[in-house]
Amino acid sequence: MANETRKPVLHDHVAVKRKLVPSFLHKLGGKFSQYSWTRQLVPEAIWIGLLIDSCGYKSAWEHACALGKAAIAAMNGSECPPFVKFSTFAELSDYQKEATRSALDQASLMAIRQSLAPLAAIIPDHPLAFLGKADASPEQNARFPELLGEFYDRNSRAAVRSTALGYGLGLDQEKIHISSHLIDDLIVRFNVIEDYPETEESRQAAGAFRAAAPMLFMSANADDAGFESDAPWIAAFWDHISGFGPCLITDTLEDETTDSEDPFELFIFDFRNAVRADLRARLAAWPLDLIEIEVFEVVTALLCRQATLTMEMASSPGTWTPHVAPILLRAIADVFINLAWILKDPSPRARLYVEDGQGAIKLQIAHQKRALEAATDANEAGQLREMIEMWSDWLSAQRIEALVEVNLGSWSGLNTRRMAEEAGFLDFYNYVYQPFSSAVHSNWAHVSVFNTVHCQNPAHRWHRSAAIAATPIDPNWLHLASKYLSKTFAHFDDVYGFDLPNAAFDLVASQLSETTEENLS
Q1: Confidence of residue 498 (pLDDT cuts 50, 70, 90)
Q2: Could you give the CA distance from residue 24 to residue 80 in angstroms, rounded to a whole number?
Q3: pTM of the full predicted structure?
Q4: What is d(CA 196, CA 206) in angstroms, rounded to the nearest whole number?
Q5: For residue 353, with 0-12 CB atoms within 10 Å meaning exposed, 13-18 middle and 19 or more buried, which class applies?
Q6: How many helices (H) and strands (E) does the chain have?
Q7: Mind listing the pLDDT tens digit for each residue in 367-384?
Q8: CA distances in angstroms from 236 to 115, 232, 504, listed in the order given
Q9: From the CB of residue 117, how many other CB atoms can be counted at a distance below 10 Å?
Q10: Whose CA is closest to 400, among 16, 25, 8, 14?
C-alpha cells in the first residue's frame, strides 16, 4: 500500500514537454538566465577579494566605500550604475577617472594600488589601473593564484566575504534599497559574516549574500529579463589569466612501454601509442579558451572518449568479432555524430550537452535516495550513501542542484538521424550508425544471424534453434575503429583549420596491407 501511494521522484518539479523543471524556475516563466560564478562573476568581484585579502575585511570596506563615493562624485550628478563590479570603473571617462583618483584620500589610494598589484602584474590595463601602479611583493604574487583558486568556489570564505562587501557597497551608494522591516536582519548578517563559515548564523547570512551575487556583479538585460553579455573586461581577464602559467594536470596521455617481443603485442602497443600521439597533437594545437570553457571541455572530452574506445578495442582482440565489435563501433559512431553536431554551433550546443548530463545525474541521485529509503541491508545502504555523496559533490561543484532541469528526452532535442543530417553526415548515419544499432539493440536482424542455426530435420519446418556462431577474430574490425577515429580527428581538424597526422589509422592500414600481401604470396 505504501508503494502505491508513494510520490514519484522529483514530484516537486513541473513536467514541461520532455523536461522536469524545478518549480522555482517554472514560476519565473522561463525568464531566469543562468550564469557562471567562475566565468562571469569571479572577474567582476576579484578586486574586492584582493582588497580584503590585503587589508582585512573592515579596512577593505572603508577603502572600497571611499572609492565608490569618489567615482560617483566624479560623475557630477549624472545617472550612474553602482560601482560594485570591476568593469564599471572602466566606463568612466578619462576626466572622471582623474577626478576619482584626485578625490581619494592617500591612505585608500595606496591601499587599493597595493592590493591590486599582483593583478596589475598580469593585466596592466585592468579597470582600476588609472589609480596608479604599485609593485607586488613576493608574498602577494605567491598568494594571487591561491586566492583565485579559492574564489572559484562560491562557498569559499573569500567569495562570500567579497559578495557581502559588494552588497554593502550597493547600500552605501544607495543603489540597493531595503524595506525598513528588513534592516535589522541585514545588520545582523553584516555583523556575523566575518565569522563565516564557523557559525550557523554566518552560514545563513552567506546564503543571502550569495543569492544577491548576480544582481551585484551582472547587469540586467531589459529585453529578455536575463543578463547582459559578458563585459569586455571579462574576456580580457580570462585571456590574460589563461597565459598565467601552464595547465597543472595529471598526464594521462604518456606512451606505454612493454618488454614483450611478440609481434602482435608490439603492434597493439604501437597502435595505442599512435592514438595517444594523434590525440596529443590536437590538444596541443588547440589553444585553451577560458571564455568558451564548456566548448573546450566538451570537445576535448569527446575526442578523448573516441580515442579511449578505440584503444580499449585494440587491447581486446576477443572483441574483433561480429558479436561485440558492432556494439563498440556503434558507440564510436555515436560519439562522432554528437561531436559533429556540436561543432556546427559549439557554444550553445556544448552547454546543452553539459546540462543534459547534469540533469541525468540529478535524476540518478533522486532514484538513489528513494532506494536508500527502502534499503534494509546495511551494506547496500552504505554503498548508496557513498554514491549519493559522490555524485552530489560532482553536481554541486558545477551548478546549484535546485536549479538543474532534468531532460527525459534526447539531450539535443533531436533524434540521432536528424543530428547527423544537420551536421552533414547522413550517409555516415545510414551506413554505419544504423546498421550497428542492430547489435546494440539485439534486434532480429542481428540475433537471427549470430545466435540461431537452422534445424536440419526437414520435418521441423527449417526452424531456428539457439546457437552462438563461431566467428574468427578479424583485424578488419580494428581497421574500422581506427577509420572512424581518424574521421573524428579529421573533422575536428577541418573545423579548426589544422593539418595534423593520423598515425594510428596509417599504422593499421599498413599492417593490413602487409598481411594481405603475405597471404597472396
Answers
A1: very high
A2: 32
A3: 0.84
A4: 7
A5: buried
A6: 24, 7
A7: 999 999 999 999 999 999
A8: 20, 6, 39
A9: 19
A10: 25
